[in-house]
Write a structure and sequence with these properties.
40% of the residues lie in helices and 13% in strands. The chain contains 10 helices and 8 strands. About 2% of the residues have low confidence. Bound molecules: 5-iodo-2'-deoxyuridine-5'-monophosphate. Its EC number is 4.1.1.23.
């Protein structure tokens, strides 16, 4: 199993949480406070670095480093929802370079396989290069190997095999092809963004993380103008956390249902509880 998948399941069980909070917000301070508020309740924090204003690219003290410090403090994995889709060589530059330097702080990234399997090879080269560089530096690093329980310095990829938006073009044949491509890169591909489990062969141990998840409005808690329903005005389609977990998804991804709330920590706790109860129910089945 991919080392990040092992760590993820360790977190799921120790934090009793199958929740990924998606930071669909547009300033760096609000993104960092969301990570801090939801940290105790989530196992993955999903970012969109390119929607944030105020990104500080400074190595060691900049935004990526601050986020990584929160991931160590609360123990969660950082997932940059970058959706790479270009040719391998360009995807490598997008992963490593620019102001965001995603490779340095995101444990997980994702990609469309629309440009073919060599793009995965390109990203894998960078991810594995990063892990090796980190291993080589470890001996000299004052922080040593990190405290027990902190996220490991590994890098992994999720492929988009299904999407939650209405009318998307990822049909059954595309989904199947994506899974078969993933099988050829098991050492880097952790699993999928999908709406249902993708494992069908005995050796498959892919994880599935699922967006398009919301709870019906809760009178006692809801304070946000965005009250998720069955869909949003731009084609997002929602399923409840319970339904997603009972159908076999490993991690639910929740954006505006949590990040648009003034009490995002309490909302994250509410989502975590509902999903965890469903997970325990599934394990009993
Ligand atoms: N997201 C989806 N659907 C997908 C994929 C990604 O919603 O198929 I791939 C992202 C978009 C947004 C988050 O960042 O997940 C969902 O946000 P809401 O819970 O606010 O709809």
């Amino acid at each position: 199993m991919h080392p990040l998948t092992i760590y993820l399941f360790h977190l799921i069980h120790s934090k009793k949480s199958n929740l990924c909070v998606s930071a669909d917000i547009t300033t760096v301070p609000s993104m960092l406070s969301l990570a801090d508020a939801c940290g105790p309740h989530m196992v993955v924090f999903k970012t969109h670095a390119d929607i944030l204003s105020g990104w500080d690219p400074t190595p060691v003290t900049g935004t990526g480093a601050k986020l990584a410090a929160l991931a160590r403090k609360h123990r969660f994995l950082i997932f940059e929802d970058r959706k790479f889709a270009d040719i391998g060589s360009t995807a490598q530059l997008q992963y490593e370079g620019g102001d965001y330097r995603i490779l340095e702080w995101a444990h997980i990234v994702n990609a469309h396989v629309i440009s073919g399997p060599d793009m995965i090879r390109g990203l894998k080269e960078m991810g594995q290069g990063w892990v090796k560089k980190h291993d080589d530096l470890k001996g000299m690093n004052a922080r040593g190997e990190g405290k027990v329980g902190e996220p490991p310095e590994e890098r992994g990829l999720l492929l988009l095999s299904q999407m939650s938006s209405a009318g998307n073009l990822l049909d059954e044949a595309y989904t199947k092809k994506t899974v078969s491509i993933a099988r050829t890169h098991r050492d880097f591909v952790m699993g999928f963004i999908a709406l249902e489990p993708m494992n069908s062969e005995p050796e498959d141990d892919f994880v599935v993380m699922t967006p398009g998840c919301s709870l019906p409005p809760d009178q006692s808690l809801d304070d946000s103008e965005f009250v998720p329903g069955a869909e949003d005005p731009l084609g997002q389609q929602y399923v409840t956390p319970r339904d997603l977990i009972l159908r076999g998804c490993d991690v639910i991804i929740v954006g505006r249902g949590i990040c648009n709330s003034k009490i995002s920590g309490a909302k994250a706790e509410q989502y975590k509880k509902v999903a965890w109860e469903a997970y325990e129910e599934r394990l009993r089945q």
